[in-house]
Amino acid sequence: MQENVDALNDQKLKSLDTLHIPVWLAKDIAWILVYKPLGVAMILPAVFIAVYICIKTISEKLLFFQNLAILFWISANSTWMAGEFFDFSYKGPAMVLFLLGVISIARHYYLEVKLKPAELTKPYFARFFSKNQTTQKPY
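Structure (tokenized):
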């Protein structure tokens, strides 16, 4: 029974990660087209999904820091877009968020090099899900 729940959680996380991409793209397309309603409307789902994925992967530090970097990047990108749309000073706040993303991804790579080289042949997300399908609880 617990294995079924774990598999459903894995599938939900994969689905959200996949859903995340079109939400990002819709936001960025709206930004390019200067279509403020769609651009602003896509900020909340993009950030919410990124936060949710971070919360769900917090116990897997390597995956968490990768997702945290994505969250900071989406937040910085959204700040930049909103600053351009509504003419406010965005460079300082966006730069802080981008730098936090750089720190997060640096932490991700630092943790990743601690793994055996043979384990680094597949992307971490693939290693995470293949490992959890056989032995461990993902969350």
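Confidence is low (pLDDT under 50) at residues 1-5, 135-139. The two ends are 16 Å apart (CA to CA).
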